[in-house]
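To: structure subgroup
Subject: Chain for Friday's discussion

All,

I'm putting the inputs and outputs inline so they're searchable in the archive.
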Amino acid sequence: MYHLPIFYIAQDKINISSLSKYFVKTYRDISDDAIVSFATTIDNTSWDNVDVPDDASASYSNFIGIFSSVYEKHFPVTKIISLIMLSFTLQIFC
């Protein structure tokens, strides 16, 4: 089924940022390739600065810093706009 673009002219300004929470979805693509790449990077990472004698807090902070940066690199948060929900909502209000 095909349709023409939907346009809506509002009398008042619409706060798009407040609507974005309904139409923008976030996810992490945790594919098999990304997992293999993540594991390879973790295996090749130097963990020398994680072993801080007499300071468990510094060791933990160093570990979390390294792990988080590798995790974010291989599994970044991706945002997508749900056009189906946007179209459905416009149909309701038009």
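Points worth raising on Friday:
The chain is about 55% helix and 10% strand.
The chain has a mean pLDDT of 77.

D.
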